[in-house]
UniProtKB/TrEMBL annotation, chains A, B:
InterPro entries membership: FUR (IPR002481), Fur_C (IPR043135), WH-like_DNA-bd_sf (IPR036388), WH_DNA-bd_sf (IPR036390)
Listed name of the protein: Fur family transcriptional regulator
Record note on cofactor: Binds 1 Mn(2+) or Fe(2+) ion per subunit.
Signal sequence interval, chain numbering: none
Species this chain originates from: Bhargavaea cecembensis
Sequence positions that bind Zn(2+): C100, C103, C140, C143
Cofactor(s) it depends on: Mn(2+); Fe(2+); Zn(2+)
GO biological process: negative regulation of DNA-templated transcription; regulation of secondary metabolite biosynthetic process
Amino acid sequence: MESRIERIKKQLHNAKYKLTPQREATVSVLLEHEEDHLSAEDVYLLVKDKSPEIGLATVYRTLELLTELKVVDKINFGDGVSRFDLRQEGAAHFHHHLVCIECGAVDEIQEDLLGDVEQIVEDRWNFRIKDHRLTFHGICSRCSEGNEEKESE
Amino acid sequence: MESRIERIKKQLHNAKYKLTPQREATVSVLLEHEEDHLSAEDVYLLVKDKSPEIGLATVYRTLELLTELKVVDKINFGDGVSRFDLRQEGAAHFHHHLVCIECGAVDEIQEDLLGDVEQIVEDRWNFRIKDHRLTFHGICSRCSEGNEEKESE
DNA sequence: ATATTAACGACAATCATTACAATATGATAA
DNA sequence: TTATCATATTGTAATGATTGTCGTTAATAT
Ligand SMILES: [Zn+2]
Ligand SMILES: [Zn+2]
Ligand SMILES: [Zn+2]
Ligand SMILES: [Zn+2]
């Protein structure tokens, strides 16, 4: 079976784009950091390790392109920077996020969970849903476990 | 019964802040545009009509303060600016949004709808939810009605 | 080899947001 | 009243993320 990067290459070709060395380096950084939520600057710094001559503008352009092709999703957690998240292969919808207001950790929820809600929205508001963004802000399991004793204060 | 602005004034006082004329002008602009989703710049321009001497920095600080007090919620629809939305009085949670990718309209969903989902997230992920952001992107009712005939093309 | 064109890299420009320094306002104490 | 202190404001400078420009490069077609 072909690799993930091969399939992304095909997606690019279908849309008449090439997988240049810079684009390949960028995609491979994203693949190596699938768990993370990197900003453009983060990606740039990581890509520079492989391809020191790459320019920041190219990274921005590549991320924009990948967003357009829905290879990545662009998301904003409210801290002034856009972050880029590889879309699960074949996933119809973007996954959800848990942002901890204590430690800043960002966890993912791959389960859809919104099926019923989306049905209601489509029906009651007559709105044709194409995409969504769902983020919960709160206290992650690690932070609340560590501080259980403080509850009684 | 006291007015909305009176109650906001009390909230400020409880937190040891004053409702200065500039803050009052800003809040009143927000009240007059409850349906809209204004950026800081938008608010600034509107407030200047009432108080031409107000500074942009003051508007930013006031919006930050109101966000802290949960009088307004700060939201980002992915177009590079933060927008500010008066929180429904007494609402436990922030309302949801429908963003039309055709015409750009932003509609609101005041219903909670997420009760079950939040219960699942709290239980399965052991995450203590404090707030959320839910936005659907798609085609609004007005845009899909107007273009029904195009479906058959 | 020459022309064409997509893609690059370096750097300038833009735009939202924040930081700063000087001034004003308002309450409190001498 | 006058001095003092804290808070809030203003205009402006600085910052930081993102986008635009432009001359160059690299791959492809003629
Ligand atoms: Zn945490
Ligand atoms: Zn994610
Ligand atoms: Zn529309
Ligand atoms: Zn709203």
